[in-house]
Every structure is written in structure tokens, then in C-alpha cells.
Amino acid sequence: MGRDGQSVVEKVRSVLEAYIRNRTFSMGFAELLEECAVSRASLHRTLSDMVESGLLAQDEQGEKYRLGPLLRSAATLATASVSVPGVARPHMEGLRDECGETVVLAELHGQFVVPVLRADGLHEMRMNQEVGRRYQAHAGATGKVLLAQLPPEPLAELLADDELERLTSNTVTDREGLAADLRLIRQAGVGVTLGERVPDAVAISAPVFDADGRAVAALTISGIASRYSRERLTADALAVTRVAESISVEAGFRPPETSDLADPHSPERGALETMCDAAWEGARREGVPAGS
Predict the structure, then answer these.
(1) pLDDT at 287
(2) pTM for this predicted structure
(3) Would you say the C-alpha torsion 270, 272, 278, 280 has a positive or negative sign?
(4) How far is 273 from 276, CA to CA, in rounded Å?
(5) Taking Cα atoms as reference points, which of 11, 223, 258 lies closest to residue 122?
(6) Mind listing the pLDDT tens digit for each residue in 134-164?
(7) Which of 107, 176, 203, 277 is the most exposed place for a label (fewest CB within 10 A)?
(8) What is the pLDDT of residues 224-240, one digit of tens each?
(9) With b meaning 16 or more CB within 10 Å and e meaning fewer, what string describes 22-60?
(10) What backbone phi and psi angles, to 5 degrees, belong to 254?
(11) Residue 44 CB-half CA count within 13 A
């Protein structure tokens, strides 16, 4: 403990917080003295120690202190660690343990979605989306959730030239139908499909955002239809949305204040229930082996 009652760590923290409050990389001694609750002599010793250790560096004139190489290296490492894939794994495993199904994190690349992380389901029979493999984005909740986040013009350009391939009898191949699905997903903030890419597959997906507010990935529960009931579609949609938001927040995203999807009377929940009803009824009509 120093003579002014503060430990060395507390003094260093006080200096670093001054840079954060002022949102600057460089400050002079007088500025720091005004900002930090330490004496002139104590601040001088603290700054000298921080320069010697690489936490700060002085300019050529010795008038300004800027953040040093050690802090810059730490900042680079911290930025990498809070990327979406960097923080997603434990959240994905927790969601997998909760729902029992395979959980996938996928990115949009043109007209395709590409899984980048996977937590395998707990059942012997489980979905197995291959990491690194390309899947058509228009078929299934994973791709639709990411397409729904695109502005209208880029989305129209992306889908303008090619026909939408039919992968199963439930695949939406007309653009008006796809546009309607994307509007519903945007309103709900989550996508639910059944049998669109694989006949007996359930996909329940929510967007994951980075610190800049960009939808950079989709978090998806990828399950087997025979293990699902109509009620479970809603329950897993709430779960995947909750976990996707947790990943987004840890990656630096600050979600806006919106209606709670968990509120059964909210417009978002109404859109979700409409989507789940349509997926369930479509699966029943096409003979997809969904549970009761």
C-alpha cells in the first residue's frame, strides 16, 4: 500500500480509466493529474513504472503518455477472444446439453451457409452438419435467418439470377413465398423450419451479432423431427434466441430495447407461433415423421 492509501494496482487502474473516460490514446501529465485521484509525486512514479513495464510510452518530446506496446498487444488478443466464434463454444455446449440436439454456428457466404462450429447432439441418432461444407441458404432456418438480416437490395441481387433449388417437398422455391418467410423471421427474430433441407430435420435458428451490430452468424438447433412436438418448437425457439443474444452480448453487441419474445402477447411471439404452426402443419401434410 502506498503512502496515499492506494495500492500500485489501484493507481495503474486509475490511470487507465482516465484514458477510457476520455476515449483517447494519449494524455499529458497535467491532464492525468486532474483525472486521477493521486498526488503529483505518486502519479509521476506510477507513470514512470508504467513506461518501464511497457504499459505506456512517451512521445519524443516527453510531453504526452500514450498507450504502450504491452497494452496494444493485450487489446489485440482481447479483440480476437471476443469475436463471435471465440466466445460461442461454451454457450453452444450449454444449449446442446439443454435441448439434447446438435447445435451449429454458421456464416453466410453468398447464397450458401457454412457451419464454422458444431456441438454434437447427445442422442445416438443426430444431425451432422459438416463444418466447412456449403448448404443452400434458402432452404432451412439457418440460411433464412441470415438472409432475413440483409437489406432489400443486396438480398434481391443475391437471389436474382439463380433458381431456388428444391431439396425436399417442403423447400420454398418461389421468391414471393421466401420473401414472406423472411418477413416473418425478421419480425420474430428467430426462424423455425421442418423438413426444408432434409425431410426429417428440424432447424431452429437465431441471428448472432458482433460489436458493430452486424448479423455475422446464425446459431441453430439442428434436431430430428420425431423427437419434437408442436410445443417443443416454441420452447427451443425461445432457448436458441436467449443463447444467441448471450453470445452477441459477450462479443460486444448491445441489443436494443424491444418487446420480449417470451411475452405470449407480443408481436414477436405472434410471428413465432405463426411460423411454428406453418412448419408443423406442413410437416404433417407432407408426412414428415414429427412427434406428437
Answers:
(1) 59
(2) 0.72
(3) negative
(4) 5
(5) 223
(6) 999 999 999 999 999 999 888 888 777 668 8
(7) 176
(8) 999 999 999 999 999 99
(9) eeeebbebebbbebbebeeebbeebbeebeeeebbbbee
(10) -115, 105
(11) 4
